[in-house]
Amino acid sequence: LFPYTTLFRSGLASDTVEGAPHPDQWPSALFSYGLLQPGRRGWPLVAPYAVGDPQPATATAEVYDTGLGYPAMLLSPTGSAPGTVTCLRNSAQLLPGLDEFEGAEYRRVRLVLSASGVVAWAYVWIGAAARLHPLTDPPGIN
Questions:
Q1: How far apart are CA 34 and CA 88, in angstroms?
Q2: Which residues contact 87 (CB under 8 A, 6 or more apart)?
């Protein structure tokens, strides 16, 4: 199973845990800022698990252009990354497919969304940072 990281509201402290969290610790929400948002290529993977409509949300992070047709998010104590938060049913069943879709250059983490305080899963970039370029128009809600 994948390691996961718990991120606290400051975005600075983290606690890495090996293996799957206890079922009571699985967030029932997904923060997405790119291809996993409604209307984008990865949304059909998420849609069957969505509860209600995705809502606008912001993470304490920065979004970059990878030059590969999809964005990358890096956690940042001063950043503000726009996206959506989707409430999920059965996230334990959904996440392995999302992990595969996102690939080796991303890591699934738990984070606290800036304004709402909702704890959600999100995918952060762990690939080569040299290829990243600042986005002038971050991929928010369509």
A1: 17
A2: 28, 29, 50, 51, 52
CB 112 within 8 A of CB 118: yes
Rounded to 5 degrees, what angle do the CA atoms 82, 137, 107 make? 50
Q: Is the pLDDT of residue 108 over 60?
A: yes
CA distance 126 to 37: 20
Three-class SS state of 25: helix
Q: What is the pTM of this model?
A: 0.79
- The region that residue 36 occupies, defined by phi over 0 for left and psi between -120 and 50 for alpha, beta otherwise, is alpha
Q: Are 131 and 67 in contact (CB under 8 A)?
A: yes
Q: How confident is the model at residue 121 (pLDDT cuts 50, 70, 90)?
A: very high
